[in-house]
Amino acid sequence: MIGKILIILSLLVVGGTLVAGIAVMAIGGETGAKWSNVLMRYRILAQAVAVAVLMAVLYFSSNH
């Protein structure tokens, strides 16, 4: 159960970062130039954490 919650939470963080990045790019101007690259880096980091969480949940839930 805790694994499913961690997976959903990590996917929500990735999705939220993606939506924030798209919103900042839509705003454009000085704000877009400043924050779009930063949010892209955070999204990549969040994706790496999400993959690590998914792999850990799959590993610990398997019968080995």
What does this structure look like?
This protein has 64 residues and is mainly α. It has one domain. Helix content is 92%, strand content 0%. The chain has two helices and no strands. Helix 1 packs antiparallel against helix 2. The longest helix is centred in the C-terminal third of the chain and has 33 residues, at 29-61. It is elongated, with a radius of gyration of 15 Å. The model has no long low-confidence stretch (mean pLDDT 92).
Topology:
Layout: H1 2-27, H2 29-61
Describe the structure concisely.
The protein is mainly α and 64 residues long. 92% of the residues lie in helices and 0% in strands. The chain is elongated.
Low-confidence spans: pLDDT under 50, at least 5 residues? none
Q: How much helix, percentage-wise, in residues?
A: over 70%
Number of helices: 2
For the terminal residues, how far apart are their CA atoms? 19 Å
Radius of gyration, in angstroms, nearest whole number: 15 Å
In terms of DSSP E residues, the strand content is under 5%
Order of SSEs, N→C? HH
| Rounded average pLDDT | 92
Count of discrete domains: 1
Label the overall shape: elongated
- Number-wise, the strands total 0
Report the major sheet.
Answer: none
Structural class label: mainly alpha
